[in-house]
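Notes from the 1:1 (GR / supervisor)

We went over the backlog. Supervisor wanted to see one worked example end to end before approving the batch request, so GR pasted a single chain during the call. The sequence is below; no edits were made to it. Supervisor asked that the structure be written out right there so they could see what the output format looks like.
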Amino acid sequence: MNIPFSPPYIDDSVITEVTDSLKSGWITTGPKVKALESEIQQLTGCGPVLCVNSWTTGAIMMLRWLGVRADDEVIIPAYTYCATALAVLWAGAKPVMVDSGSDFNISVDAIRQAITPRTKAIIPVDIAGFPCDYDAIMQLVEKPEVKAMFQPTSPVMEKLGRIAVISDAAHSIGSHYKDKTSGSQTDINIFSLHAVKNITTAEGGAICLNMPSPFDNNELYKELRMKSLNCQTKDAFTKSKAGGWRYDIVGMGMKANMADVNAAIGLAQIRQYPMMLNERKRVFHEYTEAFGQQPWAVTPPTIQDGRETSYHVYALRIKDITEDQRDQIIACISQSNVAVNVHFVPLPMLTLFRDLGYRIEDYPQAFDNYSHEISLPCYPQLTTEQVRFVAKTVIDAYYKVIQNQ
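Structure output shown during the call:
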């Protein structure tokens, strides 16, 4: 049996939607992007949604809109994918890394300890699709003593009057927090629509706008949509109409837009997402049932304290092993043609960030999570037979490695 890690969900409805885009004669930003934005807004209950060409581009654009500059600090977890930190660096600010909790997500206590007058934003990350403790984070930035420490360095920051919270929800579309679907818990929420995500556009991201009063999120959407098209006053769809050629460039924008041909994939998927999500949930429960009988297995959080995962990654942890033993188990699993992964290598262990002075020794929980973790295949197409095969392969690999030590 050959089981890939995370193939995209492509059925006839996806092919039909993409073909419709190709036959329309319009494949870049146009009506399908707008339709996908509307579908995401309906799914999440958030404010206006802007689709862009990647999570990373969306985060850079929002940090630049916020007005961060050199010496400004943005708090992020050390346990995340590199894009979280790279977005901060590309926006011109300094990533301040903090440790995680045992649920993989950023530690709120660690955030509080890291806040300084230079802190301008916090980017919590929903690891594997399990939401962070957003009530605690939003309450933290509203505390009088934290707001008193805040020193704005841009007009947007002055208008907000506190640290901004930008959720890295790359994994968590369809997750729930306190009876609400993920997308509306923070000032800005950014989903990834990359090829391996629950909903994909091959490459892409979606920015959900939830800025508090006195911000007007509808006006902000218009501003950001223009920024995503190099600050051109007309998009290509409008400019292509007869007599509509004249345009202007009114600011320092970016080329960040999503194309209709990409949006078509996500549009077909999101319309059947309840089914896709239920199938992911089935896979999770089958894994948990199999590993629940193993004393060495730590199954990932699914429903806890009013939070429910999006069932994106099944992040299994194995007790009382070393990083090397974990790697040996993965190698053994691979011999059975089962593809597994690790989420994630903590940022301070990567050459770029190590050379910038970050030390993994400062983030013990992040290292502990990483060194014991194996991500298992989890997607709607997996059959019960395949899930059981993966579970048996992992269990057999564990005992083979441990008994040979």
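Supervisor's comment: The radius of gyration is 22 Å.
Batch request approved.
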